[in-house]
Structure formats: C-alpha cells, structure tokens
Design a protein that fits this description.
Elements: E1 5-10, H1 18-31, E2 36-41, H2 43-50, H3 57-71, E3 78-82, H4 88-97, H5 102-106, H6 109-117, H7 126-129, H8 131-140, E4 146-149, H9 154-171, E5 181-184, H10 212-220, H11 241-249, H12 252-263, H13 269-292, H14 298-326
Parallel strand pairs: 1-2, 2-3, 4-5
Length: about 325
C-alpha cells in the first residue's frame, strides 16, 4: 500500500528552540518511516510578521536547515523544500482568496492570539490576516492526507477543510483537493524560562544551537515554584518550569527522585537546576555536534533544498493543472 502523505513546515524567524523540537520536530523524525513526508521552510509566511525586516529571512533559512539536519530530518526519506521556490503556492493562495469569506479568516483563534503576542508590531496587513489561507494552500497543494498538529492547531485544519468544501461547491466539482485531517501529536506545552509558552517573541527560549554556557545561564535563571521561598519549604514540581525540563531530558530515575524530594524539601531549587542542566547538556550534545558539521555549508544545504523543491513543484504543478481546468483558466500560456 502507498504511504499516506503529510505536510508540515517551519517559519524561518531564527534558530529553532526546545519547544519547536518537542512540539513538532521530534514527531516529524518519527513519522518519516511511516508516511510520505513533505516538510517545507515557509519563508513567505515569515514575511507576515517580519515584512519590514526581509534581510533576516535568508540567514534564518540556513539556521532552520541546520536544526533540521541536527535532529534527524532526512532528505533521503522526506521531501524538503523552500516555499518561495514553488510559485504554485502563491497562485493557489490568490485563487482561493477570491472565494474565501473575510469572516472565516477573522475568526481563526490564533489571529487574535498573535495580535496580542506581537502587539508591539504593526500587523494591520492583508498578509497577516490572510496567512491561514496561505497555510491552507500550502496543505492542499500537495493533496496531504494529514497534517501533524497539536490540539491548539486543529482549528487551522478545520478552516482548510471548509475551504476545500467551498471550492468544490463553487466550482461544482469534487475531489480536486483532499480534505486533510489533523494528525494529533503529543505536543507538551514547553514553558520558557519565564513560565510563559516558549517563544522567540517572548525572549524566553532555549535554542537547540545554544552552547553549554548559554544553556547553563538560561536554566539557572529559569523560574521554579514561585510559592517556594526558602530551601526548607516543600515545593510543587507540577508548577515548576525546571521540572518540566527534567521530564523532557532527564532519565526517569532523576525525574522520580526530583518529584519526590521536592515535595518534602529534600532537594533545593539550585541543586535541582544543576542536575537538570547536566542532563540537558548530555541530551542536546549529539544534536549540537551534528548541527556544527553543517556550519559553512550553505551551498550544500541550498542544493539539497533545490532538489526537494523540484520534487515538490512537480506535485504542485499537477494540482494546479486541475485547479485551472475547473476554474476555466486552462487556456494556455503566453508563450
């Protein structure tokens, strides 16, 4: 049987952090053996919030690629491509924008969430409002059966399904696009060093590429149980950010010990942090070492993406042939 196809991507807004890894990349690596995977770097999506700093995008593309190689995203198993190298993304987004109600975009939950999170930026642009529609075009262009997402992203997939149904209704056709399903992944909420969700925007992220000294500094500054004022006070690991990191990178025996001893004040926060730091450094060391092997190899990385983009464009072009046909736009080209 042919493998089912999935699609997902990262916006190139800088290096990827621990939240990106445990929230998405780790699952991508595991899915490569059981699905036909298309993974892309969404450089056009990066412009929705960084339109006034386009010079940041190319270096960020390189950082994302190195992170992908470090964690085990394999170009021999998956199609890796750059969004802007497959122009069909823009064409399909434009055509879908002609028939997508404005209210559908305004009600996307993350629209208001991102407005709040990025309220220091001027985001009164169509690109920001329309990014979920571009996201839908990204998915259905490749006839993806599923999209790996956490619970908080299911609304985006449902919007895509509604857009597919509306397209089929308006064009009086069927099966031009696949209605994608969410492939729910175990996506733990990874707290940043200040307790909020880990995010570049909040300045509270620990990056896959961070060196030992930086990891130590960030983790030592991480907020623990705010109610635990003194060493002799019992703590509550359930509200401690460091304990969240223990559960991600520490062996089970250490997690169990910290859980038990913190609750009875048998271990202090500084001691707990130091143990967590050593376990985290051991966990991330092989990934960082793999990442460093790609330093200075920009052309090799871009060459890899070119190969993947050609494969992706072949699939996208086939989809757009059918789209133009049902929309009455199949009257040839200028040449």
């Amino acid at each position: 049987m042919a493998k089912k196809r999935i699609l997902s991507g990262n916006r190139p807004t800088g290096k990827l952090h621990w939240g990106n890894y445990f929230g998405a990349l780790k699952q991508w690596v595991e899915l490569q053996d059981s699905y036909e995977c298309f993974f892309f770097i969404a450089d056009w999506h990066a412009l929705t919030t960084d339109y006034d700093h386009p010079e940041k995008i190319k270096p960020s593309v390189m950082e994302v690629l190195k992170d992908w190689m470090a964690v085990g995203i394999d170009p021999k198993k998956s199609v890796l491509f750059l969004q802007s190298w497959v122009k069909e993304h823009a064409e399909l987004h434009l055509l879908l924008s002609m028939m997508t109600p404005l209210g559908w975009l305004e009600r996307v939950p993350s629209f208001k969430d991102m407005q709040q999170e990025l309220r220091d930026r001027d985001l009164n642009m169509y690109g920001f409002l329309g990014y979920p529609l571009l996201q839908s075009a990204d998915i259905i262009l490749y006839q993806a059966d599923s999209v790996p997402v956490g619970e908080d992203q299911v609304a985006h997939i449902e919007l895509t399904r509604e857009i597919v149904r509306r397209f089929h209704h308006i064009t009086k056709t069927e099966k031009v696009f696949v209605e994608p399903k969410p492939l729910l992944t175990k996506t733990p909420r990874i707290p940043g060093t200040d307790g909020r969700k880990m995010s570049k925007s909040f300045g509270n992220a620990i990056y896959i590429a961070d060196d030992d000294a930086t990891v130590r500094q960030k983790m030592m500054a991480t907020i623990t149980d705010p109610a635990r004022k003194r060493r002799e006070d019992p703590g509550n690991p359930d509200v401690c950010n460091i304990f969240s990191y223990h559960k991600l990178t520490s062996p089970k025996k250490d997690v169990d010990m910290v859980d038990r001893e913190c609750r009875r004040a048998g271990i202090g926060c500084v001691e707990c942090k130091k143990l967590c730091i050593e376990n985290a450094l051991q966990f991330w060391q092989p990934l960082r070492e793999r990442r460093e092997t790609w330093d200075g190899k920009e052309q090799e990385l871009l060459g890899m993406m070119r190969e993947g983009s050609v494969k992706a464009q072949t699939v996208a072009a086939k989809t757009m042939e059918r789209v133009r046909e049902v929309m009455g736009l199949n009257y040839g080209t200028a040449r």
